[in-house]
Amino acid sequence: EDQVTQSPEALRLQEGESSSLNCSYTVSGLRGLFWYRQDPGKGPEFLFTLYSAGEEKEKERLKATLTKKESFLHITAPKPEDSATYLCAVQGPDSWGKLQFGAGTQVVVTP
Amino acid sequence: NAGVTQTPKFQVLKTGQSMTLQCAQDMNHNSMYWYRQDPGMGLRLIYYSASEGTTDKGEVPNGYNVSRLNKREFSLRLESAAPSQTSVYFCASSVRGGTNYEQFFGPGTRLTVL
Hints:
The complex is a heterodimer of chains A (111) and B (114). Chain A has strands at residues 3-7, 10-14, 19-26, 32-38, 45-50, 56-59, 62-66, 70-75, 84-91, 100-101, 105-110. By secondary structure, chain A is an all-beta fold. In chain A, the strands form 2 sheets. In chain A, strands 2, 4, 5, 9, 10 and 11 form a 6-stranded mixed β-sheet that branches. In chain A, strands 1-3-8-7-6 form a 5-stranded antiparallel β-sheet, with no helix packed on it. In chain A, β6 and β7 form a beta hairpin. The relative contact order of chain A is 0.33. In chain B, strands 2, 4, 5, 6, 9, 10 and 11 form a 7-stranded mixed β-sheet that branches. A 4-stranded antiparallel β-sheet of chain B has the order 1-3-8-7, with no helix packed on it. Classes of the chains: A mainly beta (111), B mainly beta (114). The A-B interface holds A 4, 31-32, 34, 36, 41-46, 49, 51, 87, 89, 91, 96-99, 101-104 and B 4, 31, 33, 40-45, 48, 50, 58, 90, 92, 94, 96, 99-108.
C-alpha cells in the first residue's frame, strides 16, 4: 500500500528565513509526486508534479526536488503570503488517477 | 473558466438525514474524484470516475454513493448521514491520459452531522 509521510507537522518561520519541508513516500513504481498548497477554508491548489528522481521544479520562492524515497519543498526567503498548509501526494503505477496524500505541513511566516 | 465548483458550501444535517453534494467542472476533464478531509488525516479518496459512465470505490466508500451525471457533473450522496461523516468534502477533476495527472480541486463543502 502506498504511504506518504510529511514532516514537520507545523513550521513557524520568520520572514526571509529559508527552510525545507519533507515528504517521504513508499510506492513501488512512482508514476508521479504532487505538491499542493492549501489556504484555510479553501481547496488544494496545484503547485508541482515530479516524475523521476533528480527532477527539480521552481515557482517563485518554492523549489521542489525528488529522490527515490522522498521529496523536499524548499521555501527561499519566505513572505507572510507563503503561509499555508503544503500537501504532498503520490500516484503509483496501478492506481491510475488515484492520489495518496500525506497529512500536510502547516507553514506560518511571520513579518 | 470557473474550474471546479461545488454546492453547497456549508451544510448541517441530523443523523439519518440524506443529502447530495454537487460538483461540476468546465475544463473538459475526463476524470472526477470525491475526497474527504479530516484533521490530521489528509485527504482520503471516497469514489472516483475515470471517465463518463464509470465509477469506482476509493479508500473510504462506505456510507456514500456517487453518480456521474455527464462529463461535467459528479455528485456524492449520503443516504443516511452519521456523525462520523462530519468532514470537509472536496471534488476534483483531471485529464485522463498523456503524462499529466495533476488534479484540480473545488472549494469544498463543510458538512456537520449532529
